[in-house]
């Protein structure tokens, strides 16, 4: 596989569909087939395809007509008739989805008139009647109803004088757990969840994307008609209740966001098509940009207009002008741009792959043609339009969340190396010269006047030298630029052999760069011991022998022999492999051979390219529409204020299969996604089987796959075979490779154990259940009758060894024959993925800034122990552990806590953070406990064997998990207390160090919603790209952080860049850096970029809120050689506290706990200091870490500097690093001294004197004066700001580094 592919504009496909899908469905431009939402079907989405509420399942299992118990008026035909399914409705049934609504004159649903076309919306949606409320114990005459016993409501509670369906304030409250509605009375209309939120190119109809005209695909991500990019905005984008407000009540004339019949919206229905002035014509994107620009100028003029101070009337008029300008700009946009402008809360959830790919391809084409793009150029990118509008709306308060977009860093140019080297040399020389002219030494000579004269003369001489140097370097740069241009021109005339040699040399440099910066170093694949030129020669020789320029496939042929030859070449050069594991060496080496060849060049896209099939709605969209609870089938939902929330909580009743939708959405948004299947390396087939089997099947008598059956395995097998049939007939790509490059996810309990053999044997399988075959050390015991792997589940409907009837014509030999005899997981072909655990699940983790806790629990297992389950549950392992723990009084005797949620009360994350060891025991398949354990730094004790066999843990093929996992067989469980008690402190520390190296691999943090772990829904956490000294990083910060965070978000530049720059210059690549007082990690990530992956940056931050951001910034930038530490550095080990008051800034004097939760208050988090009454943090001395090769120490800890330096004296003496610190004003230092009750010898310690005694010289980098108090500052805050003075930033350089 060649590493890159040319970036091309996606092709437009517009194969017509029958009858234009009747304005109800979406026409697939690839296949010419209609995709229909719930309620309609047929080739043109014009026929009814219903899911009526019912009291029974169909008698004739082979019938295609679902059983119904409603009449033409959508009401139950006879309440007194027996029988019940969850869909049976005591109100009015939406027979498109099987969902029940109230009846009656006040809040009752009014269906579309009889005889209306299929898919017609109701006249009035009505109030949701859900859960137990849709079952009645008796009718209006008091007659008992058989189907309402055991959980129904009384008639009076629903339809009485104070009933749910009768009055505004009913006596009882019914469930509003339906996507699209919220509030105590289901009166609030919210956004609904769709994959990738329809790419911003369509309306989400509770899971089904109804695409705007000209767009198609499961997520409306593909373009069928380019003219719609210049179409006028339509009324389709205006949806009641979608503006984030929470006071809209469903009623007559409103769109029913809780109803699938929203598909009645036709994108061809335009308002104001034409009028006398001609406004009906299309507005081009360039014209829209002009309008936006004019609106922006008006807004700026309104803001800057001269008016008397405090003139509220002028201020109000300016605000109105801004809002009007934003509205005018939005009105000029096409639908697909207007949607995200109207609903800024979607910005963080949508990736428009079409637009980003097109923009990048156009930019590359323009660059290749030598033309620039921009507002005055040929191409005006949609992203520029959107950003301009967001900037306007931000003044009017309409786009707080939009600024949180996570943007990819720009791609560096790797082809003009001489030019870049000259420019870098120029910048470095100029910077060095400027340092010499501006240095300031604290040790003054006796004759001050003589010093000043000497300094003035030196400055004049240096200024002259600097001017000459700049002229020389400018000439060198020009020469290099000319040489680069000449080389580029000459390249076109080189011979084929010369061109091939140049390619080999370039690939050699790229390959080496990847080894050193991507896979090398302390946690990388290889360790670079020999000289660079030796390794370079070895790789160049290997490339010469193994690289041809004949075809793209040639570089991937015989990859195993190439890997072996490269490994041998590297070994001969002295490169030591085996940094992770032998399996990892093979995987990563293959990556180097086939694709890991450095950064992506401009105009290229990185391989592999993945095409995500736009599966028909029956596999995804309709299932989301059918789901009876918003908490199921998806990993996120919208709150009543349209904040994004996770569905997965710590409760055992939470949705267990969010990976199904999460992985799908990640692939839809991935930069590896291609919209052109012809260039795809892999094909992903999304099938929401867990959603169907666990949430949809059996609610009503539809849908079923094949013959109706309550065997979920049979249904699942038929569902996957149906998906395979569609893939085969709709596209040619399965047949081209016999499915070898197709990827399928089996997210249910037993993973792919029951996968159809036609899929399993051919394709790449992803699952969360790595049950190993016997050949890999596992147990693939076969059922005596069918030759299949034994099922390990206790649920009969999911047991694939039972209930195999042969009544389905699609599977005449039965579903077990379709499964065949194959293992559950094949190492080397398949991959075990970690279960999806959102950040709230591990909020107390020490990795994520949780409070420091002693691990006082020896071992923990808090889960369902199978008390009410069949004996086969968990293979009996959990039941055995529960009995052993109870009989042996393990909790009291050994601090081994084993129990259910009811027995072991408390926050699950806190309990895990308190535990030394955590038990990982299967349930009916994968348990998800391994991920919970690792994410909390707890040592996993994996119990496997017996009937379950051996289990491969997530990513075990590429991570050396054995160094961090303790394995126990079932027969060893009685000895568990002695086994765990026998683990030494050194062994335990080794386990925990291993976990710290790869715990991030168990966290799904790639989605934009997860980029900022804390408060993202309030718009408080935002991220921006920041480029500094050649490093392009993403910085996540708090928008209400008064100084540091707001500065970075506003300017997209580092805080105190004048200090950060010199520090980065002083960092030795591969060395150790200490950041004491890391704040959000903004300094630490750039220092980590400077050290490279072979170095280490210890980032100390005691504040929980800031420590979480340190971890987030580390993860989002992939800087895994950072080591975040939630410790205070002090003069002795122990415990310290943060102040319980805000100690600096405009909120100074406020209680921290009150200010921190108030998003209206801005806080100077960087000014928080140690004190009394606040968060408890563990304190250590820097000397206790015995660090060597320390090149830089940065200290900014608000008056506690002397504590840190007192405990770091030996480290500084031993390493003589460059040190940056603040000279804190006396008031703050005195407060710290007094509140912490420091001993006298610490109070007397003087940092400046200590450093001078070691020969350090100091340079002042200005002050940190926080300025004039803002108008909203508290009285205490104003006083502290005015009296606080300024704090000088000092750079102390040791004698051995003074000339560097």
TrEMBL record:
SUPFAM superfamilies xref list: S-adenosyl-L-methionine-dependent methyltransferases
Disulphide bond pairs: 17-27, 36-45
Iron found in the keyword field: no
Family: Belongs to the glycosyltransferase 47 family.
Localization (cell): Golgi apparatus membrane
Bias type Low complexity, positions: 488-509
Organism in which the protein naturally occurs: Tetradesmus obliquus
Comp. bias regions, Basic and acidic residues: 240-258
Lipid metabolism as UniProt keyword: no
Name this polypeptide is given: EGF-like domain-containing protein
PROSITE patterns, A to Z: EGF_1, EGF_3
UniProt domain EGF-like: residue ranges: 13-46
Keyword annotations from UniProtKB, A to Z: Disulfide bond, EGF-like domain, Golgi apparatus
Region (Disordered): 236-286, 427-464, 488-510
Membrane topology: Single-pass type II membrane protein
Domain of life: Eukaryota
Organism lineage string: Eukaryota, Viridiplantae, Chlorophyta, core chlorophytes, Chlorophyceae
UniProt signal peptide: none
């Amino acid at each position: 596989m060649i590493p890159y592919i040319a970036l091309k504009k996606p092709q437009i496909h517009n194969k017509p569909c029958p009858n234009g899908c009747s304005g109800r469905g979406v026409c697939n431009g690839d296949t010419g087939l209609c995709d229909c939402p719930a309620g309609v079907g047929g080739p043109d989405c014009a026929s009814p395809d219903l899911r009526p509420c019912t009291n029974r399942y169909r008698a004739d299992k082979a019938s295609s007509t679902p059983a119904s118990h409603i009449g033409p008026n959508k009401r139950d035909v006879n309440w007194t008739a027996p029988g019940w399914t969850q869909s049976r409705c005591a109100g009015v049934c939406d027979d498109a989805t099987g969902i029940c609504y109230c009846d009656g004159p006040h809040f009752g649903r009014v269906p579309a008139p009889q005889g209306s076309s299929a898919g017609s919306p109701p006249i009035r949606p009505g109030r949701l009647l859900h859960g137990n409320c849709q079952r009645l114990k008796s009718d209006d005459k008091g007659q008992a109803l058989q189907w309402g016993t055991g959980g129904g409501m009384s008639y009076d509670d629903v339809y009485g004088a104070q009933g749910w369906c009768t009055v505004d304030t009913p006596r009882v409250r019914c469930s509003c757990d339906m996507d699209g509605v919220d509030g105590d009375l289901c009166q609030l209309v919210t956004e609904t969840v769709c994959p990738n939120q329809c790419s911003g190119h369509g309306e989400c109809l509770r899971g089904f994307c109804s695409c705007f005209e000209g767009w198609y695909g499961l997520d409306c991500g593909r373009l069928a008609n380019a003219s719609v990019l210049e179409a006028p905005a339509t009324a389709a984008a205006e949806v009641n209740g979608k503006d984030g407000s929470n006071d809209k009540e469903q009623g007559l004339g409103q769109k029913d966001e809780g109803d699938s019949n929203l598909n009645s919206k036709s994108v061809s229905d335009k308002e104001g098509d034409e009028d006398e002035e001609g406004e009906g014509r299309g507005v081009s994107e360039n014209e829209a940009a002009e309008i936006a620009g004019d609106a922006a100028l008006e807004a700026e003029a309104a803001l800057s207009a001269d008016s008397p101070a405090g003139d509220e009337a002028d201020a109000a008029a300016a605000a109105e002008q801004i809002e009007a300008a934003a509205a005018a700009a939005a009105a000029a946009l096409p639908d697909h741009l207007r949607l995200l402008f109207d609903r800024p809360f979607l910005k963080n959830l949508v990736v428009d792959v079409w637009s980003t790919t097109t923009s990048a391809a156009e930019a590359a084409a323009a660059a290749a043609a030598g033309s620039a793009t921009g507002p005055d150029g040929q191409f005006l990118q949609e992203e520029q339009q959107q950003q301009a509008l967001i900037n306007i709306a931000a003044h009017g308060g309409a786009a707080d969340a939009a600024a949180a977009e996570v943007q990819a860093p720009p791609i560096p140019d790797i082809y003009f190396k001489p030019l870049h080297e000259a420019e870098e040399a120029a910048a470095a020389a100029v910077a060095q010269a400027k340092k010499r002219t501006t240095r300031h030494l604290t040790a003054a000579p006796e004759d001050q006047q003589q010093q000043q004269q000497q300094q003035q003369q030196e400055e004049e001489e240096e200024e002259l030298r600097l001017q000459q140097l700049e002229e020389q370097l400018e000439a060198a740069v020009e020469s290099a630029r000319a040489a680069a241009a000449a080389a580029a021109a000459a390249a076109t005339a080189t011979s084929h052999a010369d061109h091939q040699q140049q390619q080999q040399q370039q690939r050699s440099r790229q390959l080496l760069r990847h080894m050193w910066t991507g896979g090398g170093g302390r946690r990388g694949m290889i360790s670079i011991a020999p000289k660079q030129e030796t390794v370079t020669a070895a790789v160049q020789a290997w490339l010469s022998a193994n690289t041809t320029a004949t075809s793209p496939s040639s570089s991937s042929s015989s990859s195993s022999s190439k890997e072996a030859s490269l490994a041998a070449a590297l070994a001969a050069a002295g490169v030591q492999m085996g940094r992770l594991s032998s399996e990892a060496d093979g995987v990563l080496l293959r990556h180097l051979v086939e694709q890991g060849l450095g950064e992506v060049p401009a105009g290229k896209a990185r391989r592999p390219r993945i095409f995500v099939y736009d599966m028909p709605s029956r596999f995804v969209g309709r299932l989301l529409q059918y789901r009876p609870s918003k908490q199921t089938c998806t990993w996120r939902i919208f709150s009543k204020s349209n904040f994004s929330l996770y569905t997965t909580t710590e409760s055992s009743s939470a949705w267990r299969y969010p990976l199904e939708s999460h992985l799908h959405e990640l692939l839809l948004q991935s930069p590896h996604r291609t919209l052109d299947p012809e260039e795809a390396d892999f094909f992903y087939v999304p099938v929401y089987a867990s959603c169907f089997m666990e949430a949809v099947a059996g609610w009503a008598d539809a849908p079923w796959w094949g013959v109706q059956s309550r065997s979920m395995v049979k249904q699942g097998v038929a569902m996957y075979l149906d998906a395979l049939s569609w893939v085969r007939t709709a596209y040619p790509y399965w047949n081209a490779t016999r499915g070898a490059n197709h990827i399928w996810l089996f997210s249910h309990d037993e993973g792919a154990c029951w996968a159809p053999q036609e899929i399993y044997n051919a394709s790449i399988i992803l699952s969360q259940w790595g049950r190993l075959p016997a050949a890999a050390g596992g147990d693939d015991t076969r059922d005596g009758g069918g030759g299949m792997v034994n099922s390990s589940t206790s649920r009969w409907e999911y047991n694939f060894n039972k209930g195999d009837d042969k009544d389905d014509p699609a599977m005449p030999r039965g579903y077990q024959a379709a499964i065949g005899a194959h293992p559950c997981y094949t190492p080397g072909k398949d991959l075990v993925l970690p279960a999806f655990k959102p950040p709230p699940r591990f909020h107390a983790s020490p990795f994520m800034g949780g409070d420091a806790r002693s691990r006082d629990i020896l071992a923990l297992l808090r889960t369902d122990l199978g008390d009410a389950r069949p004996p086969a549950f968990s293979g009996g392992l959990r039941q055995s552990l529960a009995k052993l723990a109870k009989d042996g009084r393990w909790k009291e005797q050994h601090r081994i806590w084993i129990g259910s949620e009811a027995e072991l009360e408390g926050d699950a994350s806190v309990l895990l953070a308190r535990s030394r060891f955590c038990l990982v025991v299967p349930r009916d398949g994968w348990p998800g406990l391994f991920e919970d354990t690792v994410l909390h730094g707890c040592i996993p004790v994996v119990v496997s064997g017996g009937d379950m066999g051996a289990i491969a843990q997530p990513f075990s093929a590429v991570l050396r998990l054995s160094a961090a996992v303790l394995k126990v067989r079932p027969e060893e469980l009685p000895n568990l207390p002695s086994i765990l008690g026998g683990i030494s402190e050194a062994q335990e520390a080794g386990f925990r160090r291993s976990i710290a190296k790869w715990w991030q691999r168990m966290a799904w943090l790639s989605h934009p919603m997860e980029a900022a772990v804390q408060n993202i829904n309030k718009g408080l956490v935002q991220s921006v790209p920041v480029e500094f000294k050649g490093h392009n990083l993403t910085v996540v910060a708090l928008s209400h952080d008064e100084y540091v965070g707001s500065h970075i978000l506003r300017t997209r530049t580092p805080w105190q860049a004048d200090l950060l720059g010199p520090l980065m210059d002083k960092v030795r690549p591969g060395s150790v850096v200490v950041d004491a007082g890391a704040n959000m990690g903004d300094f630490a990530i750039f220092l980590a970029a400077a050290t490279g992956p072979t170095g280490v940056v210890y980032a100390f931050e005691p504040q929980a809120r800031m420590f979480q951001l340190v971890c987030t910034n580390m993860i989002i930038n992939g800087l895994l050689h950072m080591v975040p530490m939630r410790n205070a550095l002090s003069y002795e080990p122990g415990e310290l506290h943060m102040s319980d008051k805000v100690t600096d800034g405009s909120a100074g004097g406020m209680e921290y706990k009150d200010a921190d939760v108030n998003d209206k208050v801005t806080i100077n988090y960087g000014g928080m200091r140690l004190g009394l009454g606040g968060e408890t943090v563990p304190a250590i001395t820097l000397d206790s870490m015995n660090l060597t090769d320390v090149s830089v120490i940065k200290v900014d800890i608000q008056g506690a500097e002397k504590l840190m330096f007192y405990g770091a004296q030996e480290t500084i003496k031993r390493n003589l690093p460059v040190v940056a610190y603040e000279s804190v004003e006396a008031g703050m230092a005195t407060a710290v001294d007094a509140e912490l009750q420091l001993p006298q010898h610490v109070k007397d310690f003087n940092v400046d004197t200590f450093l001078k005694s070691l020969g350090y010289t100091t340079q002042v980098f200005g002050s940190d004066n926080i300025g004039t108090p803002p108008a909203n500052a508290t009285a205490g805050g104003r006083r502290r700001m005015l009296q606080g003075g300024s704090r000088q930033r000092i750079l102390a350089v040791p004698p051995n580094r003074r000339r560097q």
